[in-house]
Structure to design on (568 residues):
């Protein structure tokens, strides 16, 4: 019995030892695997859906708006301030395509311009009534109708002309004794564009005509019907406008940096989609001396013969012209679809990471345009990869993520916009600073959501603003001060909190602009901004505390915002 117990004990020990030898390493490896997964979980980053620039290693609340953080995509960290990363699915759905920028020679220095066919205003004529009266019949029925010189346009009942005819009949019987009177009456009728034949007919018949015709003095196409049957018209009032379309204008928009390439008398080839295989010869007749400050373009006009009527006003046309400056060097070129043009700046999206869909907006300077190709003089380098299809989709994604985009200004640009230089006298600054404590109490009342206190503090601030001496204030400063007072009065007179907050947006647009020009303040003033206020356009306010206390949302989003500038 003792021997059996010993044998069993030895077998158990041997079994345990064998199990450890077989499974021990595997168990350790399993523990190592568990450790690795833990490390991977710890590598998860967290971000805010409204403020994607916030990246934190653990879940929690957004330090800007207080919203719960959500898991960030793998690799979403490490982006520059204005970079945007898109998913491959989003790229495919939006058909976003990129191309490598390269050098290409511009053929024969040809410049391509886009424009429209317009009526030649030098060939326009206005057919007017030569006397007061009522239009009994109008023979022009619609715009675009063809008229010929001498054609009857309208018949008019003219009371003044009836009296003048009676004068002629009376003077005709006295022409032997009073020839000067007779001649004066005939000349009076001639001034009303009556012909010699018409005057003689009245004189010979001795009868007064009630209705008189108006004949076309030129041939052309009716471009504007300016009266209708039954209308009473005054002497000289237009009835129809007639355009001669045998000659038309082609008007093109030329960029500011292309102006030096054009001169009067240059030949230009014009093409249109209506006749793709036909080219029309034209000559530049006018270059607008005034630059359009909104589009940064000038109008270049060319005259075209149009005897066969092929070119219709309103047609889109393309003009090709050889520049006056020779250009034999290779230029960096990009497709027109890659460019977003704000009127003052030309923007593209450049791919900053060759292996991942990460993009950033880049400002470029454009040269000449040749068809659908732009030359780039600065902003890009040979080998850069840019978005060439779906550019506006990428810009929209950047805007939604709060990154710099065509529609979103950067923080620096916002500060420049607010820091409009104004000349503030020492006396004005002292009086303005005295109104700031009431303003700050107004802001705190909005944070607390107390509409009654908001009204009271707004009234107090308004009274202090009105006490500021406005003598010798420049126009811009006076406008900001008046608008601030107007908004304060609107807040004081309103008991609805949301309405008060809406007016607070416009108050700060004016008041902060003034405050940015203060040279001395009692305490440090922080310029703070909530990007979600004002329908996601963003709104600013002033505070003496760096800690964010949002006056536009109060408890709902108390910490939403950030400091964008400070005054010390």
């Amino acid at each position: 019995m003792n021997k059996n117990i010993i044998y069993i004990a030895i077998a158990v020990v041997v079994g345990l030892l064998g199990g450890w030898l077989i499974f021990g390493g595997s168990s350790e490896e399993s523990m190592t695997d568990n450790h690795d997964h833990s490390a991977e979980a710890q590598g998860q980053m967290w971000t805010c859906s409204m403020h994607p620039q916030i990246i934190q290693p653990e879940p929690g609340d957004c330090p800007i708006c207080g919203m719960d953080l959500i898991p960030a995509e793998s690799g979403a960290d490490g982006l520059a301030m204005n970079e945007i990363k898109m998913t491959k699915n989003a790229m495919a759905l939006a058909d976003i395509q990129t191309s490598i920028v390269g050098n290409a020679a511009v053929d024969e220095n040809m410049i391509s311009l886009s424009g429209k066919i317009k009526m030649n205003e030098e060939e326009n004529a206005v057919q007017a009534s030569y006397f007061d009266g009522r239009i009994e019949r109008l023979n022009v029925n619609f715009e675009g109708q063809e008229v010929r010189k001498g054609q009857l346009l309208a018949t008019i009942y003219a009371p003044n002309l009836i009296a003048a005819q009676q004068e002629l009949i009376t003077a005709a019987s006295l022409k032997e004794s009073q020839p000067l009177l007779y001649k004066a009456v005939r000349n009076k009728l001639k001034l009303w564009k009556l012909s010699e034949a018409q005057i003689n007919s009245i004189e010979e018949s001795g009868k007064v005509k009630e209705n008189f015709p108006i004949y076309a003095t030129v041939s052309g196409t009716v471009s504007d019907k300016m009266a209708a049957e039954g209308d009473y018209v005054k002497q000289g009032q237009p009835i129809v406008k007639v355009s001669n379309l045998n000659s038309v204008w082609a008007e093109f928009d030329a960029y500011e940096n292309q102006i030096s390439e054009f001169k009067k008398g240059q030949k230009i080839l014009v093409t249109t989609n209506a006749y793709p295989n036909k080219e029309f010869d034209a000559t530049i007749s006018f270059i607008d001396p005034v630059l359009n400050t909104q589009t940064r373009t000038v109008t270049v006009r060319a005259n075209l013969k149009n005897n066969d009527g092929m070119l219709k006003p309103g047609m889109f046309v393309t003009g090709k012209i050889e520049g006056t400056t020779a250009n034999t060097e290779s230029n960096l070129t990009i497709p027109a679809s890659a460019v977003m043009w704000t009127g003052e700046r030309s923007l593209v999206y450049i791919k900053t990471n060759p292996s991942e869909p990460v993009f950033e907006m880049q400002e470029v300077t454009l040269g000449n345009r040749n068809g659908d190709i732009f030359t780039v003089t600065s902003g890009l380098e040979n080998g850069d990869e840019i978005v060439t299809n779906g550019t506006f989709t990428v810009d929209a994604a950047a805007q939604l993520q709060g990154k710099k985009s065509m529609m979103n200004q950067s923080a620096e640009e916002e500060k420049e916009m607010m820091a409009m230089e104004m000349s503030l006298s020492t006396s004005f600054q002292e009086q303005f600073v005295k109104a700031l404590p009431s303003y700050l109490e107004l802001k705190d009342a909005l944070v607390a959501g107390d509409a009654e206190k908001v009204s009271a503090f707004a009234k107090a601030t308004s009274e202090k603003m009105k006490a500021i001496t406005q003598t010798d204030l420049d126009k811009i400063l006076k406008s900001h001060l008046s608008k601030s007072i107007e908004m304060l009065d609107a807040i004081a007179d309103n008991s609805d909190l949301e309405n008060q907050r809406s007016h607070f947006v416009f108050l700060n647009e004016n008041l902060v602009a003034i405050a940015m020009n203060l040279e001395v303040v009692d305490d440090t003033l922080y310029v703070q901004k909530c990007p979600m206020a004002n329908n996601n356009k963003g709104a600013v306010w002033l505070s003496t505390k760096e800690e964010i206390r949002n006056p536009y949302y109060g408890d709902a989003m108390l910490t939403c915002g950030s400091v964008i500038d400070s005054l010390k």
The chain has six domains: 1-42, 43-78, 97-106+329-408, 122-243, 247-322, 414-567. The CA atoms of residues 419 and 516 lie 6 Å apart. The radius of gyration is 40 Å. The chain has a mean pLDDT of 79.
